[in-house]
Amino acid sequence: QVQLVESGGGLVQPGGSLTLSCAASGSSFVVDAAMYWYRQAPGKLRELVATISSSGSTNYADAVKGRFTISRDNAKKTVYLQMNSLKPEDTAVYYCNTIRGSANYWGQGTQVTVSS
Question: Strand ranges (DSSP E) for 1-116?
Fold first, then answer.
């Protein structure tokens, strides 16, 4: 089993910054597993925001490229999403995700609201 717990969401003004954290645990968790951040806005499908591979290479959705940075601390089993220059359209519930074998693991999500 893998448990993922997100934190760091909140209300921020446009142009502001937030850093999300995803703490992983569980007997099935592999410390250098690929990790993903998704988000889901009201009435929209869940979308992939950022990926970090086992080697540390990263990929981003076009909508967040240049503004968001995904990183990891394997010693702490934690993945981060640094979000800068936030826009109202970044408002969503943000989820951490990893895959182990055929199992897909999700956290409970953390709400990010960008509003003045």
Answer: 3-7, 10-12, 18-25, 35-40, 47-52, 58-60, 68-73, 78-83, 92-100, 103-106, 110-114
